[in-house]
Amino acid sequence: MAFTGKATYSAGITLPEIAEDVSDLIGIISPTETFLLDAIGDPLREAKSTYHEWLEDSLVPNKDTISDSSISDPDGETSFDVANSDRFRAGDQIQVDGSEELILVTGVSDNTITVVRGYAGTTPENIANGQVIHILGNAALEGDDKPAARFTNRVRCGNYTQIFTSSVEVSGTNVAASHLGIADEMDYQKGERLRELIRDLENTVINGGQPSANPQGSASVRRSMKGIIQNVATHIYRPGDSGFPSGTGLDEAKINYVLRQIWENSSGNVNLIVVGGFQKRKINTFLSASRSFGPTDTAYTDMVSVYESDFGVCRIITSKWIPQDAVLFLDSSRVNVLPLAGRSFQFKPLASSGDYECGQLIGEYTLEFRNEAAHGLIRDLAVS
Predict the structure, then answer these.
(1) Strands 312-318 and 356-369, how do they pair?
(2) Between the CA of residue 123 and those of 63, 75, 76, 77, 306, what are the distances in Å?
(3) Cβ contact 173:361 at 8 Å
(4) Domains in the chain, start-ordered, CATH in brackets?
(5) Which tens digits make up the pLDDT trace of 124-173?
(6) Rounded to 5 degrees, what are φ and ψ at 237?
(7) In sequence order, which residues have a C-beta less than 8 Å from that of residue 46 and are 6 or more positions away?
(8) Checking CA distances to 260, which of 50, 127, 214, 347 falls within 20 to 30 Å?
(9) How far apart are the C-alpha atoms of 379 and 384, rounded to whole Å?
């Protein structure tokens, strides 16, 4: 039997007699995650100037390369040029990469070293231009004078601070009115703009760059920080590079290659691998062949969160802001995101010239990226 009383639908489309039913929760779908900043953590100090500097040093290198295209007797040559002769001293035992032969350095003059081949009873082997030479160590003569002092110079490195800002304006009427889902429109707007600024900070930390001229900024040049990708210079690898595993798809061989190169050439301890969504799915497939599930299993797991290799234990971070063709290898102990002193994100109320309240969210930050050779980067990977 049809209902004959007054129903809600008989009140019309605008429902003037029915109270509104609106949830007090406001859903936000825009991405705001900052997984890299969360992994790095808060800094223990602040920047004191718009150009933040730090010191870096290195040990005297213990390897070099042969730089002599005129070698005529590869397994009997007793003198040849090297790229950096100041790394060698008389009494050094050296060994060419991949060779079992030991060689003794007896003299150094200009860029040429004089040597004894087949030292300690080893068999002389062919040497060639461009080969890497490892310096094993120096054998001093008993009672000999001290050798010439050798040292490295500390290097000052730095990065500029960048100002992140956003404004908020709310009319007087809006401030006074009651709202669904919020208690105060001004506070709500401040929270939204702050989320945006923190999101943009992580994006800039990864991808940002500095102006080529007047990086300190001016009335017409905006000062900006140099991001991680722009800082990495030593360990950058692309498909097709000599020695780099073949293929454009990310695989375990490529990750192990980069970790090994960083381990061999620095004291860096890579503990973060940062990837986008596509490359994260490629890493998850590393275990696909070895996964098994029982007949009572009701959950399917296909995720790799930690990669443990001979060259370090790495947490895998997924970031929306890293280029999809890239993989970052970071030693997080050498990465800090610092605010300029007294300039961490804050709200600054501004004078109003009318019937509204206004203010500015502002923060000034820089990236401290120490010892870029302790980090690595793969680019130009396949993304489909």
Answers:
(1) unpaired
(2) 21, 9, 10, 13, 45
(3) no
(4) 35-56+156-288+302-378 (3.90.1690), 63-138 (2.40.30)
(5) 999 999 999 999 999 999 999 999 899 999 999 999 999 999 999 999 99
(6) -130, 140
(7) 338, 339, 340, 341, 342, 344
(8) 127
(9) 14
